[in-house]
Design brief:
single chain; alpha/beta; 2 domains; five-stranded mixed sheet; four-stranded antiparallel sheet; about 20% helix; about 15% strand; globular; binds zinc ion
Length: about 375
Amino acid sequence: MARFDTLIRLLGLLALMAGCGGGPAVAPAEQAPAARPTAADGAPDRCAMTPAPGDRFLAEWVSPEGAAALAALLDRRKPAPPGLAGVLRAFYAEHGDDYDLLMLVTPDAGASRAMGRFIRVGPVNRPRLGLVGRADAELHPIAPRLEGVVLLALPEGEGHRSGPTLHESLHRYGQFLPREAGFPRNGHWGYTGVHGQLGGFDPASLRCVEPPDARPPDCAAGPDGRFAVSMDRFAGFANGGDRVPYAPLELYLMGLIAADEVPDPIPVLRGPEPQPAADDGRLAFTVDGVGAIRMADVLAATGGPRPPATEAERNPRAAFFLVSAAPPTDDIRGAAEAWARGLAGAQPGWPTHSYCSATGGRARMDTRITPRAP
Ligand SMILES: [Zn+2]
């Protein structure tokens, strides 16, 4: 079971890389990051939510055209086809414009699929996050409240996946910081010590290779001035799907904590070149040095701190819409509904984070599908 779980996670990380435009290939697939503890390990779950009888968590649509559109959008080798508008129209013909995110789940994505993808629909004006953009001219009029869609592959027979719901949801806010802030411009954290849903290494694990008990800048350098560092496994674009909580900088981007609550400075590898992994599985790189990204510079690059999230921003509403070419099996339907419940905290024993637990209890995502207002 553990080996199977690991295999699924590795496949997921590979797919996630494809789905998010890559990012630095920091960790080879066989070095996928280890899972971190979930909220279920210990403290009482203050994020648990008890649905009322009759609450719905899943809408369905059987449509070969709709499923083909989602499958193609999850396959980065193909150009994005028309057809997403048809999927949105099918949902909103039956439901109100009550959701910030629409989770479009399909069992019909092909073998080269990404596990997830975020597509912005509505206009965005968050200059303090480096994020300003127009609405999608075709999609936005269908559902003016809708901020974006998350496409999710849910293949038959593979059951619950380890994400990337939390990762794709975070692309509402990041990572779009301007280049001057010191982060890569591929939407993820790359070789920085952010260590969150969008990748990055754990700065607490950073060590010199020589001497092994030292930390940068006290590493032994070669004649060219470069030296080797190691750290716990990580990837530049993700860190283990929905098993990983949001990092402090990510909580800041979401407006859930203040800028001065983010660990400062954030280390960044300069000129990293991968080295063979150590026997203990840690990753190693030679570097020109380890730089420091300071929050003061991040705020200077963005014109000041981001305003705290409003109540509505803090607690987004999402709906899961299962779109399949043929009537879904009980296995697929059950997995999709459990995913929606799990994200809301309404699935006892859910093995990965709810949105609430991933934010440290600061926010909730309501995934109930409510009746359309008359
Ligand atoms: Zn991504």
